[in-house]
């Protein structure tokens, strides 16, 4: 199953103003994540993941695997590369769990929640 990174494209960090920024922090973060994937995982943008107090937010998901919500990133290349690196590990994992020792350092402390896979339909 392909792992997807869903990026909130409406996220705005504290202090953001349309007059000074023009683009949202989420749009900037999405650009960086998309550039870092090199086709290894899939990405999509979604308008509002409802984690506004912890912008910039992403989810890492795949069918039949544990999913993760992460946030409170600076929209920079180090964070984007770390998100993609974790997503690649998630993609390689049978159930979506990635051992803590393998987590890229820049994503530690950014996990918001973990979601179990949906049950198989009868």
Main β-sheet description = 5 strands, mixed
Low-confidence stretches: none
Helix run count: 3
What portion of residues belong to β-strands? Answer: 15-25%
What is the H/E string? EHHEEEHE
Number of beta-strand segments: 5
Globular, elongated, flat, extended or rod-shaped: what is the shape?
globular
Spatially, the strands of the biggest sheet line up as 2-1-3-4-5
Proportion of helical residues: 25-40%
Average pLDDT confidence is 92
Rg = 14 Å
- Secondary-structure content class: alpha+beta
The CATH class, by name, is: Alpha Beta
CATH architecture, please?
Answer: 3-Layer(aba) Sandwich
Quick overview of this protein structure:
The protein is an alpha+beta fold.
């Amino acid at each position: 199953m392909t792992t997807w990174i869903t990026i909130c494209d409406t996220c705005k960090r504290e202090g953001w103003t349309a007059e000074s920024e023009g683009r949202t922090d989420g749009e900037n973060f999405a650009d960086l994540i998309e550039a870092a994937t090199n086709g290894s995982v899939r990405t999509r943008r979604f308008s509002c993941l409802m984690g506004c107090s912890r912008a910039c937010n992403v989810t890492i998901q795949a069918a039949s695997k544990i999913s993760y919500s992460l946030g409170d990133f600076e929209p920079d290349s180090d964070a984007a590369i770390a998100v993609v690196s974790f997503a690649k590990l998630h993609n390689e994992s049978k159930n979506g769990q990635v051992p803590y020792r393998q987590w890229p350092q820049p994503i530690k402390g950014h996990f918001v929640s973990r979601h179990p896979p949906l049950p198989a339909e009868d």
